[in-house]
Structures are given as structure tokens and as C-alpha cells.
Amino acid sequence: MSIFRFTPSAAVNACKIALLVLLEVKRRFYSNTIYYILRRNLSVRVQVPLPRISLSLRELRADDIPALINIHERILTIPELWERVRILNMINSGIQTPYVAVTVKDEPCHLAWLIDSRSNEKIQSFFKGAVKPLSTHELLFEFVFTLEKYRGLGIQVWRSLKFAEKGAAMGAKWALGYIKKTNETSLKNAQKNEFKPYMIRFDRWRLFCRKTEYRLLEQDQTDPCVKVRVAKKVASAFN
Ligand SMILES: CC(C)(COP(=O)(O)OP(=O)(O)OC[C@H]1O[C@@H](n2cnc3c(N)ncnc32)[C@H](O)[C@@H]1OP(=O)(O)O)[C@@H](O)C(=O)NCCC(=O)NCCS
């Protein structure tokens, strides 16, 4: 099945991708971005509400990709297009392992990568230093995406719990996630799954060169609220 099907919406979306390129040039010319790196102890048990639809989790198959990219059905916003471009790049990177949450009809509605240290070389070449290499007891939950029509049904929270269970069964101790400071939904969802702020990543793009700095949050380990406040204070000092 082809990813691209010609429809009026697909044509408009293709034109908008040109705008996306310009925005990306602007971002790389001058921008400051902050990511929180959150960490979850995989031995901690968490209870999260069941998603509001029946789901199962399986590895991504090639025939899932058109349903997830889906640029022919309707005109997409710039952020929606950007997410699809990033997903295609990530799939092409060969980083393992992409999973999909699927409905009872086996339709994919959510995508995320569960990554271990065996992908370190690919992580380095794909993220170019923006994601730290993983140790053998760490996993990375990356590139999380819920198709727009399935959002708000509790899918991300449920899938994150499933990854945590898989991770623990694989013998890993920690799960890591990089979340943009402005992504309130993901930050909130991560906290529902016992992720705690661990580090902050500062990206500075100047004239197409990126400088990345990390800061470890060393405050009181027992109080996540204190850590979130400290993370926000450190982050606001950056802007
Ligand atoms: C962030 C994202 C993965 C969340 O996926 P999701 O499966 O909708 O998440 P959940 O349903 O588990 O989360 C519930 C939260 O979504 C938000 N939400 C509720 N309805 C929503 C809707 N119709 N549309 C979008 N978000 C909604 C609410 O904040 C809700 O939290 P609450 O129930 O405590 O109020 C999804 O919005 C997405 O793919 N965004 C674009 C890519 C992205 O930001 N990825 C994350 C990178 S770290």
C-alpha cells in the first residue's frame, strides 16, 4: 500500500510541507528550546485508568504506515504535518522498536518507540547528540504519536504503562523520556505514569549550528512537585 495517494487534500498538504521547510530553516537560524528529561523507576507499580477504547499493543508493520501518515484524507495543520515528517524520518532511521496500539479491528491509532542500548549507534547518528546514549539498564520511550481522532481517550497513558511493564520484564531499571517544556499533555501524562523530572536539555540554534547542554536536577528526590518547580525555574532562566 502506498503512503501517498493523490487527493486535493494531499496536494494542499504537499504545498504546506514547503512552508514547513522554511519554518525549519528559521528555527535552525535562531531558536532556544527546552526539553525535560523525565525518568521512571520501572520497579514502581502504577495504576492508570483503562483507555476509553479496547486496545492491544503490537510491533509496527509496514502496512500500518499509510494509516498513521494519512495526508490524503484532510488538510492538516503545520504541527500535524511536522509530526508526520518526523515519524517518517524516524521509521527510516531503523531505530528499534516501534510499537502501535491497535483497535479491535487492528487499526493503528498510536505509535511509540521502545528503545534499548542496542540502538545507541543509530540514536547517535539520528539525533546527533541530542539524545544521550543509553546504558544497559535504561530504556527510552520516544516519538510518541496518537492519531488526532483518537486523542484524549487515555491511549498514551495506557501505552506508557505497557512499555513500563515490557521494560521491567526485559530487566531494565529506568525508562527515560524527552518532552518539550511546552508539551503540557505529555508532561501531565508522564507524571501520571510516575515519571519524575531528571534532567533539562537546552538547545540553542544559531546560524544552523546547534549547541546542546544538559543540566542534572539534583533537588530533593522525594518530592516530584519540588523538582517540577525547580525544572521550570531553571528553564525560565534560559529564555
Ligand atoms: C501528546 C499525545 C501523544 C497524547 O496522546 P493521547 O493518547 O491523546 O493522550 P491521552 O488520551 O493518554 O491523554 C489524555 C490527555 O489528553 C488531553 N486531551 C483530552 N482530549 C483531547 C483531545 N480531544 N485532543 C487532544 N488532547 C486531548 C488532555 O490533557 C488529557 O488529559 P486529562 O484527561 O487528564 O485532562 C498526542 O496529543 C499527540 O500525539 N500529540 C502530538 C505529538 C506529541 O506531542 N508527542 C509527544 C512527544 S513527547
Tag the structure with descriptive keywords.
239 residues, alpha+beta, Aminopeptidase, eight-stranded mixed sheet, 7 helices, binds coenzyme A
Work out the strand percent.
25-35%
Please write the string of helix (H) and strand (E) elements: HEEHHEEHEHEHEEH
Shape: globular
Structural class label:
alpha+beta
Bound molecules: coenzyme A
DSSP strand tally? 8
- The radius of gyration over CA amounts to 18 Å
| Mean pLDDT across residues | 92
CATH topology: Aminopeptidase
Main β-sheet description: 8 strands, mixed
How much helix is in the residues? 25-40%
What's the tally of helices?
Answer: 7
Instruction: Write out the CATH superfamily name.
Output: Gcn5-related N-acetyltransferase (GNAT)
The low-confidence runs, each spanning 5 or more residues with pLDDT under 50, are: none
Strand order of the largest sheet: 2-3-4-5-6-1-7-8
Q: What is the domain total for the residues?
A: 1
* End-to-end distance: 45 Å
